[in-house]
Structure formats: structure tokens, C-alpha cells
Specification:
Blueprint (H helix, E strand, L loop, with lengths): L3 H18 L10 E3 L9 E5 L12 E4 L2 E4 L12 E5 L5 E10 L14 E8 L15 E6 L12 E3 L3 E5 L2 E3 L3 E2 L12 E8 L3 E6 L2 E11 L18 E6 L4 E10 L3
Antiparallel strand pairs: 1-17, 2-5, 3-4, 4-17, 5-16, 6-13, 6-17, 7-8, 7-16, 8-9, 9-12, 10-11, 10-15, 13-14, 14-15
């Protein structure tokens, strides 16, 4: 969404609404919780296409130097080994923040569009409900892209919608991916990502503290929908997962502020 002033207004409105909902005399303020401990994958569930839940083929997901690393040094050919690693708990209204960076070369056999391409999936279907050969969970994808050629724009924190549609600027969006208004980042620097999700009412992506995308009202439907008989169903909650799409990427300082507590 390019009208950032409107994004800021919606963010402020959501904050006020949540504040009005809470009785401060009986409820404590929510606090940030670290959901990745920087030591191991405790609490995280890998799901890679072609493998059952909780198998981590070729050590795709690992921990190194305090970061959750998606690596392909054990792959001879990536093929279609799309994967995701899910946090164990679902959420509805929350703020999620983390840092990420692309590092290293794309795996052999990865698609050209997947170069410096990954994502954070939110409001996902449960990992248990994914099929063995399913490529992507039905979810909202906060698509992460890195710049490849200097001068060619490639924004990050975009919106992609595997198996979903959303409302943006009062219109139903059925395109699979919509670019954000972010800058392009060409190097291997750490980038701050924050995501605000308020049930199905408001979603906003922030890069390095700046709002770059906003939308609302996700419903099930469209390309990559594997949930039969559920087209048009509103999505008010779900799981969070980090994507494996053939280019090495690292995540660290993953924290969540549960606004429902």
C-alpha cells in the first residue's frame, strides 16, 4: 500500500481499539516473548515437500551462531523441495518481529524466480494438515526479496497469497503477489522485519521501522488452495512459518507480542 499515511492511521486505530478492549485494572500489559532460543530448533516443526512433518532432510533447517539458518549445502539438486518450519503455537492478533538476511549462493536446481527469495508465512493452515507432497501452506506470505542487479528495484516484505485472497484499498485482491513500497536491499545486511496482525481486520508489514504494506480480510481461495470445500472462509488466526525456497537465508531475534493475552 503506497499511502503510508493511511497505513499509519490504521495502525494507530488498531492500537487504540486493542487498548479499549483491555481493562488495565485487571489485565497486565502483554510482553514480547522470544520464540527462537538461538540454540536449537525447540518449538519449531519442519515440513518439507516429499517428507512427513518433523523430518528435516539434509539438515535444511539448523542453528548457527544464534541464527535459524536455511541451508542447502547437503543438496545435489533442489528440485521442488520447498519447505517451511512452523512455530508450534497458532496466533490471531500479534506483532511479530525478527531480523533476516540472504547469505550465500542459491542451491543448484532452484528456480530463477527463487533467487534471493524467501518468506514469512502467517495465518497458516496447521502443519499437521499439510499433505506430504504439498509445496506451500495455505497462508499469507510476507515475501522477502533481495536485490540482484544494482539499479533494478526488488522491494521486500511484499504480499503473496498461496490459497488466499485479501482486501486492499477496499477491493478484493486475487493476484498472487503484490509489491510493497520498500527499498531494495542488495547486500547481505541484516534487515528488520515486523508484522502486525489483528485477527482478520488489519495486517501491516514494516521494514526497518517503516510501514510498507497494509491489507485486511483474508479468505481462503485461489491458487495453491488445498483446503477443499472451504473457499470464501474468513481466516482469523493460524500458524507462523519460515520458508525454504532454494536460496540460503538466516533469521534471528524472533519475538512475538501476543495481543490476545
Amino acid at each position: 500500500m503506497r499511502a503510508l499515511s493511511k497505513v499509519g492511521f490504521l495502525f494507530l486505530l488498531a492500537t487504540v481499539m486493542l487498548g479499549c478492549k483491555s481493562d488495565k485494572s485487571t489485565q497486565s500489559e502483554p510482553s514480547w516473548v522470544t520464540i527462537f532460543n538461538g540454540k536449537d530448533l525447540d518449538g519449531w516443526l519442519p515440513k518439507v515437500k516429499g517428507y512427513p512433518l518433523n523430518e528435516n532432510p539434509l539438515n535444511t533447517f539448523r542453528v548457527k551462531d544464534g541464527a535459524l539458518v536455511v541451508s542447502y549445502d547437503g543438496y545435489e539438486d533442489f528440485g521442488e523441495s520447498y519447505g517451511h518450519i512452523f512455530y508450534k503455537n497458532p496466533y490471531s492478533s500479534y506483532r511479530l518481529k525478527l531480523q533476516y538476511r540472504f547469505a550465500g549462493e542459491q542451491a543448484r536446481g532452484g528456480q530463477s524466480w527463487a533467487t534471493k527469495n524467501s518468506g514469512v508465512m502467517i495465518h497458516c493452515q496447521s502443519p499437521e494438515s499439510m499433505g506430504v507432497d504439498q509445496s506451500f501452506p495455505v497462508s499469507i506470505e510476507v515475501q522477502l526479496l533481495g536485490g540482484i542487479t544494482e539499479g533494478e528495484l526488488r522491494p521486500t516484505a511484499n504480499l503473496c497469497t498461496p490459497g488466499m485472497h485479501v482486501i486492499m484499498n477496499d477491493s478484493l485482491v486475487t493476484e498472487h503477489c503484490i509489491p510493497s513500497s520498500s527499498e531494495t536491499y542488495y547486500g547481505d545486511e541484516w534487515i528488520d522485519l515486523e508484522i502486525l496482525a489483528i485477527r482478520d481486520s488489519l495486517f501491516t508489514h514494516f521494514i526497518n521501522g517503516e510501514a510498507v504494506m497494509s491489507y485486511s480480510k483474508p479468505i481462503i481461495g485461489g491458487e495453491y488452495n488445498t483446503l477443499e470445500g472451504r473457499d470464501g472462509e474468513a481466516v482469523e488466526s493460524g500458524y507462523i512459518s519460515l520458508q525454504s525456497e532454494s536460496h540460503p537465508i538466516e533469521f534471528k531475534n524472533i519475538e512475538i507480542l501476543d495481543l490476545d493475552n
